Amino acid sequence: MVDEDRPKLTAMVTDCLVDARPIDGEFRVARRDGDVRTVHMMGEPVLDTDGSTASMWAVLRDVSELRRSQRVVSETRDSLHAQRQTARTEHRLAVELQEAVLPPWHGSLRLPHRGPGVLDVATHHLPASTNTLIGGDWYDALELTDGETLLSVGDLTGHGVGVASNMTMLLGAVRGMAMAGARPGQLMALLNQLLDATVQPALGSAVCCRYRPATRTLMWAQAGHPAPLLFRDGTGRVLSAPDGVLLGATSGAAYGQAEETLEVGDLLLLHTDGLVPGHTGAAAVNLLAALAPRLTGTATAQDCLRTVVQEFGEGEREDNACVLVAKVTS
Q1: Model's pTM, two decimal places?
Q2: φ and ψ at 63, to 5 degrees?
Q3: Is residue 3 over pLDDT 60?
C-alpha cells in the first residue's frame, strides 16, 4: 500500500462498516519489484436484522493499465489543445505583420502624383486555400524622391511568423534603399547581403523595377524570380531577364540590370510564383501571355487586374501569390 493512500482506504472501509455507505474508490499498491498498481474497489455493507452493519463485501480490480491509458489520452489532448492555441496565435501575428507592412491602398494608384508619364497601378494578394498558410509574398509601389516610381514583388520560402517577419524586414529595406537612390541591380545585391546576415537562414526571390516617367524607361533586376510580362498591341511577352540568383543562396552574388522603353498603353504585370495554380515556369508564363487579347481593351490597371484574378484566382490554391499591374497612361 502506498502510504499516502492509507487514509483514503481507511476512510472508505470505515464509512462502509460504521455508516453503512457503499464503497467506490481507488488506492495504490506498491509491489516488491517497485511497480505501483492502481486498484479500484467497489463494495457494500451487509446489514443485520436490526439494521446495523454485520459485515461488508467488496470487489477489487487492477485498473493500472486503464488509468495509464486515460492519462496518456488526457495529456495528448492537452498537448494538442496547446498546439492549436499556439498555431492560432502565430497565424494571427503573421496576418497582422503582413497587413501592417503591405501598402494600405486599395483599387488603382497613380504614380507619380504629379508630372508626365503617369503609371496606373493596381495590386492584389491571393491567399492560399488553406488560410493557415501565411507566406512571405509582398508587392509594393512607391513614388521616390527623384520622381521615379518603384515597383517590386517578392517571396520568401516557408510560412509563419518568422517568414512574415523577414518579409517585413526585406520590404522595409527595399523601400529605404530605393529612396536612397540604389539602382535595382545594386539593391538586389544589398538585399542578398542582408538576408545572408540574418540569424534565421532564408531564401527569397524578388523583382525590382524603377520607372523613369520623363523617358518612359523601366530599369529592373531580378533574383531568381519570374520576369515581368509586357502586354502591347494585343500580344504579351516576358521580358528578357538579367542574371540574378535567389536571395540568400550565396554570399557576394552579383546581379545584372536591364532596361526597357515603354509606350503609352503598355501594360506591365509582375507576380510571384503560384499565381497560376498548378503551373510554374514557362507553362505559367504562356497562360498569362494568352490573356493579351482580353487585356488589350481594359481601360485601367484595375480592370486588367480583375481579369487576371477572375481567370486564375477563383480555384484551389496551394500557396499565396501576389500580382501587380502597371499601365502607362501618359
Answers
A1: 0.68
A2: -115, 25
A3: yes
